[in-house]
Design brief:
The complex is a heterodimer of chains A (339) and B (546). Chain A has 15 helices and no strands. Chain B has 546 residues and is an alpha+beta fold. The chains are: A mainly alpha (339), B alpha+beta (546).
Chain lengths: 339, 546
């Protein structure tokens, strides 16, 4: 197992190196002058030239990459030309907000996706199966930002059941950012009110993000349940009189959950880079919005860092998914040489 | 197992979710104003450059001189100034005594000289128009500025120069590129302030939020003269940075936003705000919607062709629905600026007959079928695209094809870096963000040594008379005589049809009715957003249940 994980990590390093090389050059050939973007409207041409020199923008691409890689190896991702702060500082500020959001969204989509999928599969062709199919299609077809606006309007504006924007209310004093996760920081600071409020603020944006994934995971789980139910060993268990709950949770759910877990891993990385519209609607100060701002302002260091973070997340989450599947599926474990 | 039992699990989860929601309220009426500005990145006066940075500067810092409502500048941190010698390369400023920094220390000439040295050495932000300046403290309250080139308008340029406290900056410097001055305190000043402004920063998360509290020791005081009995100074400012106007509308309607100072509302949103009796507008400055015509590429290299465009455009159609919000005629200067001269076409109506006459005089008259005009706007800005589509329809009536494209801002702005890469037509909005405002709309846009780039995407510098007059404006110390020069140059510039101006777009600050201001109308970005000029009516706020 350890050898397998080590090998996968080593492969990831090579993948990330290739990714950094690719995105570094792509970011530089996209039209626009990063120095001009950084200096603002009233900068003179002389000032622009000086900053181009400072940013090594007049050097050949390989030289620029050398400078960047050298800094990276020292833990320095450079300075954002937009926020004018170290990119690492920006990431430390924005990444936890998005991780908190998408972890919560993933949890919601897992719970609701599993419940609806199992029910729909177990009672296939029932009214519930039909209804869940219809709702799933709607969920898949409706963009997350539309759902975000609708939820905001209904639950925050009309019913006043949920807060509208931000991680906590504008007037609430945030606890010191120890982890960047508002829920945890509230507890660490002895402020359960912050934790509870942060949870409330998470609900609508997280649910907006999770709807499409609830629908997808629900459908996948349903299909998987239906397939597994047709296996001979399930029929055998039924014939032996094993009760329904035991069949469902011990023999049916475990193999059926494997495709869902695989999809969840992909969904997590997808959400990292695609949550920006929901983050915009809810004024969520997150990584995805930061990434979009970096792109629009041709913030070279930030763009490369953002892609690397997404790449690292993708690699780690997929590794985690593989490990989980190894635990869930003994055949995979045996193929990898561990019993 | 039955469906209802498993449904029960889902129902329980849902109940947990709804239970977590609870009822949300913002609490009692507070003396706080939540204000939306575009993302403020730097709070350092030496690196602040965009207009939203300037809005922040006017709250946290004070400029040496202040833009005056009638044009020109008036005393502020400096009480008087005069040129030393006759060539305008040496200026002496006398400072106000007793001005306190937020630390409580008094501002002196030493601080001002240090701030200017820092501004010039760092060479960013709004320092470009100053050139090279050597600052020397003559005594505790007198400072001399020696320029590398003569400038009669130097005092007016200083409306974007905000002194910092030398001792505080040096106490917080880090290692950096400026020798003994390290980083000149740049890193520290991103999230702290060292100013004399009416508000003092308490926290700043760049691009996200800036909090400030009222500075009781502000040198202009907090007199309530001219305000209503229940209108009191705002104690705390919370600047949020949101660019999505759907979200902002939600906030405004729910009372979560008190004032919005960037005015990016769409027409339906403005109409919705107008209908709501708890909301109101303030409007102080407008943006000049400007469509440059590149004089160096075909077919807009032909003056008659450019004039045909001027006359073919249907001004009334494009402005129509906006008229209720004050959008209207404009020209090289904004109409509310002294010395504004209306330019062709007059009246501002489509004149296809005149357009045809001009087209007939152009060198492209016999080959109109093969003529294509590229019109570029900033991708995502619908009102800019509308101008392009209107022109497309208008020019089609003359048999000319206009291709309307909206590349994203980085590409769009990069295109304007040279005459060869600039499209035939490019549309920009120019708010009064650089001083003197007259200079910004004339010299900066039409002189060969102007701001260049998107400010001069017409690329026409071929008329020596225009250049002579523009140079004369910078050499003329007498404001009245300078104004006469600006009046003289506008028709000369307009005669070449280098741009057309569809309309001026007022910046409408949407606000809760209990927020009142600004007390003065100053046509410049920043001073009107100085919250010293605004008040809050707490009784009205309470009555509205906010």
């Amino acid at each position: 197992m350890a050898k397998y994980i080590g090998l996968r990590l080593l492969q990831s390093v090579f993948v990330l190196f290739g990714l950094s090389l690719l995105i570094f050059f792509i970011a530089r050939v996209v039209p626009g002058d990063p120095a001009r973007q950084a200096l603002g409207l009233l900068a003179t041409q002389e000032q622009v030239e000086r900053v181009r020199e400072q940013m090594h923008l007049n050097d050949p691409f390989p030289v620029q990459y050398y400078y960047w890689l050298r800094s990276l190896l020292h833990g320095d991702l450079g300075v954002s030309s937009y926020t004018r702060r170290p990119v690492t500082t920006d990431l430390a500020q924005y990444l936890p907000a998005t991780l908190e959001l998408i972890l919560f969204a993933t949890l919601i989509s897992f719970i609701f996706g599993q419940v609806t999928g199992v029910l729909a599969g177990y009672f296939r062709n029932s009214w519930f199966d039909g209804a869940s199919r219809l709702v799933s299609y709607l969920g898949i077809a409706t963009p997350a930002f539309v759902i975000a606006i609708l939820l905001l309007f209904v639950f925050s504006q009309v019913l006043k059941l949920a807060p509208g924007i931000g991680r906590i209310p504008i007037m609430m004093q945030a606890p010191p950012a120890r982890t960047g996760f508002m829920i945890i920081d509230g507890l660490l600071a002895g402020r359960p009110d912050v934790t509870l409020t942060a949870l409330k603020h998470l609900l609508l944006p997280a649910f907006s993000l999770s709807v499409i994934h609830i629908a997808q995971e629900g459908r996948i789980t349903r299909t998987s349940i239906v397939e597994t139910m047709q296996k001979d060993y399930i029929t055998l268990h039924r014939v032996h009189g094993i009760n329904t709950r035991r069949i469902l949770f011990k023999y049916l759910l475990r193999p059926s959950i494997i495709p869902t877990v695989t999809v969840m891993g992909l969904d997590f990385a997808f959400l990292m880079s695609n949550a920006f519209l929901v983050e915009t609607v809810y004024m969520w100060p997150g990584f995805s919005r930061y990434a979009m701002t970096a792109m629009l302002n041709k913030d070279l260091n930030a763009i490369v860092a953002v892609v690397l973070v997404i790449g690292v997340t993708f690699a780690l989450v997929n590794l985690l998914v593989d490990v989980i599947i190894m635990f869930l599926d003994p055949t995979v474990r045996l193929r990898q040489g561990g019993a | 197992m039955r469906i209802p039992r498993l449904l029960g699990v889902a129902a329980a989860l849902s109940a947990l979710v709804v239970g977590l929601m609870g009822f949300i309220g913002l609490g009692a009426t507070d003396n706080v104003a939540v204000i939306n500005g575009y993302p403020v990145i730097t709070a350092d006066p030496a690196t602040a450059s965009d207009w939203y940075d300037t809005e922040t500067m006017y709250n946290l810092y004070s400029p040496l001189v202040y833009p005056a409502p009638e044009g020109g500048v008036r005393a502020h941190l400096a009480t008087s100034w005069e040129p030393v010698g006759g060539d305008f390369t040496h200026w002496r400023f006398v400072l106000r005594q007793g001005v306190k920094f937020h630390s409580g220390n008094e501002m002196t000439a030493e601080d001002v000289a240090f701030s200017m040295a820092r501004f010039i050495a760092m060479g960013r932000g709004n320092s470009g128009p100053l050139g090279k300046v050597n600052a020397v403290a003559v005594d505790r309250y007198t400072v001399d500025f020696v320029l590398d080139k003569p400038s009669a308008i130097f005092p007016e340029v200083l409306v974007l120069f905000f002194p910092v406290e030398k001792a505080v900056v040096l106490a917080n410097k880090k290692a950096g590129n400026y020798g003994e001055f390290g980083d000149y305190g740049e890193d520290w000043l991103t999230t702290h302030d060292a100013g004399t402004g009416p508000y003092q920063m308490t926290s700043h998360i760049p691009g996200q939020r800036l909090d400030a509290v009222r500075f009781a020791g502000y040198f202009e005081g907090w007199s309530n003269e001219g305000w209503g009995p229940d209108e009191v100074p705002i104690e705390k400012l919370v600047f949020i940075m949101e660019t999505d106007y759907t979200t902002l509308m939600t906030l405004l309607k729910s009372g979560g936003l008190d004032l919005e100072i960037n005015g990016g509302w769409t027409l339906p949103q403005l109409q919705e705000i107008q209908k709501d009796l708890t909301l109101a507008f303030s409007s102080v400055w407008a943006q000049n919607v400007t469509v440059w015509m590149n004089s160096k590429v075909a077919p807009t290299d032909d003056e008659h062709f450019r004039k045909a465009i001027l006359y073919a455009f249907d001004y009334e159609s494009i402005v129509g629905p906006w008229m209720a919000f004050g959008n209207g005629e404009t020209g090289i200067l904004l109409p509310n600026m002294p010395g504004y001269v209306p330019i062709d076409p007059q009246p501002r109506k489509q004149n296809l007959e005149r357009a045809r006459q001009e087209l007939a005089l152009s060198k492209y008259a016999k080959d109109l079928k093969n003529v294509k005009v590229a019109f570029h706007f900033c991708g995502g800005l619908g009102f800019e695209e509308e101008v392009g589509l209107q022109l497309q329809a208008d020019m089609a009536q003359l048999g000319v094809t206009v291709e309307v494209t909206g590349p994203p801002w980085p590409q769009y702005s990069a295109e304007c870096s040279s005459p060869e890469t600039t499209p035939n037509m490019t549309i920009f909005l120019f708010g009064p963000q650089s001083a003197p405002t007259h200079d910004y709309y004339t010299y900066a846009m039409f002189a060969p040594k102007g701001l260049g780039w998107i400010f001069e995407a017409h690329w026409f510098f071929d008329d020596p008379e225009i250049i002579r007059i523009l140079d004369a404006t910078r050499a003329e110390p007498d404001a009245a005589k300078r104004l006469a020069l600006y009046e003289q140059v506008q028709p000369l510039i307009a005669a070449h049809a280098l741009a057309f101006y569809p309309y001026q777009k007022p910046t409408l600050f949407a606000r809760q009715a209990y927020i009142v201001g600004p007390q003065e109308t100053i046509v410049f970005i920043g001073p009107s957003e100085n919250m010293h000029m605004w008040r809050i009516n707490l009784k009205a706020k309470e009555a509205m249940g906010r």
